[in-house]
């Protein structure tokens, strides 16, 4: 793995937002950027080769123009144009990246997607953390939100989130959401002491999760948030006012290229802000 940020560049307008996010992060952390486009859709039709070659040449020109814009800020940058399946190519390229940045055409609640589920499949299969940038203006937002549940993968998410909050100089909100056991015979009816104990146990788990933050980042403002609720819903609600949401996703397996995990996939399905998926 290198310190290079890999940015997937498509013809969609959100690609410029993804590039700019990566460029700022690279400038802050003294990293390089690689802009990558993949030309797909080949079916083997007669005359297709010339069409693909023309598309690759056009995309090369676009990437070189973007690279020149980034390099003017003193950021090391290179470009790559390949042909093939975009998901597979980007997943393979992520092996040598510190971070993969992709754009999403999600423009907010009720708008839906234009380009399908490729982003989820890329995030599920990538070998490095993936940052998904939505296609909307996020000016005025502040802070980083991260979900923790006591698992090892949430520890990795917390480490990523605290480093990003420190980089931005903004508060870190650490979130634990818990749900009571479903009781089919008496749905929604629980002894008060049970709910009180669940909240207390979750607060204890939170205290353990954040115990080392003050020593790692003594100037970091940390806000603990523990509440009853479904994790993705809580994260998306708090993320609506944040610059970044960070969630953990469990390890890659034989079918992990297509399955991301319920919580992280639900967070991406209702993309509240720039969102990082960390393993």
From TrEMBL:
Residues 1-134, 144-279 form the UspA domain. InterPro entries: Rossmann-like_a/b/a_fold, Universal_stress_UspA, UspA. SUPFAM superfamilies: Adenine nucleotide alpha hydrolases-like. Belongs to the universal stress protein A family. This is Universal stress protein. It comes from Microbacterium lacus.
């Amino acid at each position: 793995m290198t310190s290079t940020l890999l940015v997937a560049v498509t013809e969609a307008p959100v690609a410029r937002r993804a590039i700019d996010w990566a460029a700022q992060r690279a400038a802050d952390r003294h990293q390089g950027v690689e802009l990558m486009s993949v030309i797909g859709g080949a079916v083997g039709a007669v005359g297709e080769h010339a069409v693909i070659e023309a598309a690759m040449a056009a995309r090369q020109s676009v990437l070189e123009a973007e690279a020149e814009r980034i390099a003017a800020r003193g950021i090391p940058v290179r470009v790559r144009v390949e042909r093939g399946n975009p998901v597979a190519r980007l997943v393979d390229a992520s092996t040598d990246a510190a971070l993969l940045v992709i754009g999403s055409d999600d423009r907010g609640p009720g708008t839906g997607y234009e380009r399908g589920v490729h982003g989820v499949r890329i995030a599920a299969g990538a070998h490095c953390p993936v940052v998904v940038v939505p296609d909307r203006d996020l000016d005025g937002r502040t802070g980083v939100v991260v979900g923790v549940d006591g698992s090892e993968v949430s520890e990795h998410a917390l480490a990523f989130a605290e480093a990003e909050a420190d980089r931005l100089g903004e508060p870190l909100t650490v979130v634990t959401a818990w749900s009571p056991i479903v009781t089919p015979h008496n749905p929604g009816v629980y002894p008060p002491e049970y709910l009180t104990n669940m909240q207390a146990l979750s607060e204890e788990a939170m205290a353990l999760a954040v115990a080392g933050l003050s020593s790692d980042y003594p100037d970091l403002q940390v806000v603990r948030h523990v509440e009853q609720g479904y994790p993705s819903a809580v994260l998306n609600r708090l993320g609506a006012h944040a610059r970044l949401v960070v969630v953990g996703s469990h390890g890659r397996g034989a079918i992990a290229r297509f399955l991301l995990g319920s919580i992280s996939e639900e967070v991406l399905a209702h993309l509240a802000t720039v969102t990082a998926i960390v393993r």
